[in-house]
Design brief:
4-carboxymuconolactone decarboxylase; single chain; Decarb_PcaC; 7 helices; CMD-like; 128 residues; peroxiredoxin activity; AhpD-like; mainly alpha
Length: 128
């Protein structure tokens, strides 16, 4: 395991949480191992591990880019991650307002719908 991979796993766990990463790791196969290594080293070990902007700012950028490019399936995961990155509800809506202006109202509208659902789930009391 490379240092960048180890850093990536640490950052990935701090942003997405152990439970999410453990589930993803359990589903990893020999087929997708190269892809998982790429995103762990590249996305998490390089981009998310950088120190030029804060995790909060990275969350906002990530959410805006996912919405702007129509990659909606990852939005719920990254909305949940805001609990660990410090991005607030206000930050999330601001990111999507930018999407509406620069990438289109339908994409922002769908992203906001997804974010509302996830934020509501996050506010529900846990069943103990």
């Amino acid at each position: 395991m490379s240092d960048r991979y180890a850093t990536g796993m640490s950052v990935r766990r701090s942003v997405l949480g152990d439970a999410h990463v453990d589930r993803a790791e359990a589903q990893k196969s020999e087929f997708d191992r190269p892809f998982q290594e790429l995103i762990t080293e590249g996305a998490w070990g390089t981009v998310w591990a950088g120190d030029r902007i804060t995790p909060r700012e990275r969350s906002m950028l990530t959410l805006a880019l996912l919405a702007a490019t129509g990659n909606f399936e990852e939005i719920p995961m990254h909305v949940r991650a805001t609990a660990n990155t410090g991005a607030s509800k206000d930050d999330i809506i601001e990111a999507f307002l930018h999407v509406a202006i620069y990438a289109g109202v339908p994409r922002a509208n769908h992203a906001i719908k997804l974010a509302k659902q996830v934020l509501d789930e996050m506010e529900e009391p846990a069943d103990d």
